[in-house]
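dumping the sequnces here before i forget
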Amino acid sequence: MRRQLPFILVFAFGLFMIFQYFVPHESSERAYEFLLDWTTIIGIFALAVGIWSLVSVTIEKIKLRKPAWQYSFFTLAGLFLMILFGFTAKVDGHWGFHFYTSEGLQNPMFRSFFDYILTPIQATMFSMLAFFIASAAYRAFRARNVLATLLLIAALIMMMRFNPFLGPVGPLFEKTANWLLNVPSLAANRAIIIGIGLGMVATALKVILGIERGYMGK
Amino acid sequence: MITYDKLMSLDRRWVFLFLALVCVGAYISSVEVPLRVNKEVNKIYNFIDTLKPGQIVFIAIDYDPSSQAELHPMTYALSEQCFRKGIKVIYTALSQNGPGMADQAIRDIGDSMKVDRTYNGVTYKGRAIKSGVDYVFLGYKAYFAIQILSMGQDFRLPFPQDYYGKPLDSLPMMNGVRNYSQIACVVDIGAGNITDAWISYGQGRFGFPMALGTTGVMAPIYYPYLNSGQLMGIMGGLLGAAQYEQLCDNPGLAKDGMRVQLFGHMVIILFIIVGNIGFFMSRAAKKREGR
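..and the predicted 3d for all of it:
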């Protein structure tokens, strides 16, 4: 029964959600809203598990002095400081903890940590990609064979499409770039999307019918 | 080492240094990058431009600071266009760092709105935009697909309060606004799989007019949806953002960034050409030597 009960639940709720989509009745919508609420509630437990997992893995790393263990202090500090700032606020001239309101989101430290630490860090990490792309393009974009040459030409056209120094040839590049986006790229992407869609339907059916049991952990 | 071998095995630190110098040079230069606006960007602008004051546009800010260079300018230009025309805006942020991005954008746009400005020949008086009156920021909830579906029933289901803790029912702007049926269009400005959820679970199920602002690398993936009519327009990357700024006559970060992107691309093209010259010369030399 321990194994059968989850299959029965998945089958019943999966089937219900499929039929509910086609029944625009008030009671059907109410049941749907109720189930959506439940999904969020169950999801919140996953969040708690995630935080617990992060803390335990980081503490373990410090204890065992694993490579780069010193950085783990920053991970823990970031996690707990943001939680602390997020729950602290000045209300009616007094600072205090506010667990049930969103006053903490206006905390200057909470905002400053986001604006002046997280934002520049993430933006910097991403902007460094430009340098790696330049280096990778220099090494990898070689006209070794027909396919590589096609890729190389397509990349050059895309990069040249808004170059103002090309004079009268400029619009031609732009037209070709738009054609690349609207015809070959579109065709390939559409095929991928249809493939993914069919794969999702097949997987969903396999889960509902109990053929795919990966979510059970085995 | 022969010259063409050197061309093929240039230390990557030279590539980094050269690119950095060109980017800094481009940023401080005053070269104008002329833009021709794509029809997929134009369609978004025209749609918003024809809305009447009081109508509501839903802007989903679904990106993190890593994509802010490309996507923040879209949020700025689009929001300011709405506010100047008296169109109201509902914001959500369904990515983890989205609320911070939205909060930052709303503060900056609020400052810009206080100044008198002239766009496309029309002068707009400066005014303060108010939460609950001109815009509502719903905030963040985990599990974006579920929240997109829930908002289709009622915004109050996932967001009984706005980001600032005010009950939605107490906000004048939300009076009579229940779900997507009362919204003129949804513009998702996103850099991840939340965009897919907006198209599949939002537009697909509820059928609202939808436009998309996304990063340059992601834009081609969404062209099939433009072609099928599910999206009315796409702003792709910094170029799309700069085109939108140009349409709004509100040049900002994207127009500035286009200079850097243009010269950066030219450097990459240069290195690709240099690498290929080295490659072909090396191959020809090997053939001559009979290898």
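Chain A touches chain B through 57 residues (CB under 8 Å).
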